């Protein structure tokens, strides 16, 4: 079955980010079962409720906020359960990707999912707040890049040497009038 972890693994559920498209399923609230297919451009979500016919939605990946990681404490003291999800504004469309007990192993897959789907990495706090994970390069925090040239703000406009030139204007079109000559008998 897709998404099942191997025996002896600390992962309860894992979808492989390197073998897209992937299939998975999840129970939402005990009343609906969600099955989904995920590829690089879209997620096809099929929801099956008890009293309603199945509902199939095609959701583009651009509508997802990012790949989020959430850590929950378990009943055993000192142990945690780590979840990686494809986070959507609508909780019914949030898709589980990984659930495991080892944060180090899940962190590598979390980053791999972010690269595979080209979505930002997010962290869900204990209070439910969502924040972007900061990328760091050693002691330096990587942020958005700044333009290298001073005039890059004007890059979409005309070049500097063309701004002094005047734009051309059209002349009146010439009308040519003549008689048509047709050879007849």
Distinctive features:
185 residues; PH-domain like; six-stranded mixed beta sheet; four-stranded antiparallel beta sheet; 36% strand; disordered N terminus
Question: Can you describe this structure in just a few lines?
Answer:
The protein has helices at residues 103-117, 160-163; strands spanning 11-14, 22-28, 32-38, 42-49, 55-60, 66-73, 80-87, 95-100, 121-124, 130-132, 135-137, 140-142. The chain has 185 residues and is mostly beta strands. Strands 1-8-7-6-9-10 form a six-stranded mixed sheet, with helices on one face.
Detailed description of the structure:
With about 180 residues, the chain is mostly beta strands. It has a domain at about 10-135: PH-domain like (Roll), CATH 2.30.29. Helix content is about 10%, strand content about 35%. It is built from 2 helices and 12 strands; from the N terminus they run ββββββββαββββα. A hairpin with a 5-residue loop joins β4 and β5 (about 55-60). The longest helix has 15 residues, at about 105-115.
Give the biggest sheet: 6 strands, mixed
Name given to the CATH architecture of the domain at 11-134:
Roll
> CATH fold name of the domain at 11-134, please?
PH-domain like
Major sheet: arrangement of strands: 1-8-7-6-9-10
In whole angstroms, the N-to-C terminal distance is 89 Å
Kindly state the mean pLDDT as a whole number?
78
Task: Set out the fold topology.
Layout: E1 11-14, E2 22-28, E3 32-38, E4 42-49, E5 55-60, E6 66-73, E7 80-87, E8 95-100, H1 103-117, E9 121-124, E10 130-132, E11 135-137, E12 140-142, H2 160-163
Parallel strand pairs: 6-9
Antiparallel strand pairs: 1-8, 2-3, 3-4, 4-5, 6-7, 7-8, 9-10, 11-12
């Amino acid at each position: 079955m897709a998404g099942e972890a191997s025996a002896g693994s600390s992962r309860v559920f894992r979808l492989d980010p390197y073998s897209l498209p992937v299939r998975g399923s999840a129970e939402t609230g005990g009343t609906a079962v969600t099955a989904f297919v995920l590829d690089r451009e879209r997620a096809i979500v099929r929801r099956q409720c008890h009293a309603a016919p199945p509902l199939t939605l095609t959701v583009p990946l651009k509508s997802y906020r990012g790949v989020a990681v959430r850590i929950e404490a378990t009943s055993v003291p000192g142990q945690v359960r780590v979840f990686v999800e494809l986070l959507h504004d609508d909780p019914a469309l949030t898709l589980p990707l990984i659930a495991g007990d080892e944060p180090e192993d899940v962190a590598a897959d979390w980053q791999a999912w972010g690269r595979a789907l080209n979505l930002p990495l997010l962290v869900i706090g204990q209070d439910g707040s969502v924040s972007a994970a900061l990328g760091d390069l050693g002691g330096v925090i990587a942020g958005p890049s700044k333009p290298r040239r001073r005039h890059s703000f004007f890059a979409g406009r005309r070049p500097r040497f063309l701004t002094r030139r005047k734009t051309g204007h059209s002349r009146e079109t010439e009308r040519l009038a003549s008689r048509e000559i047709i050879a007849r008998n």
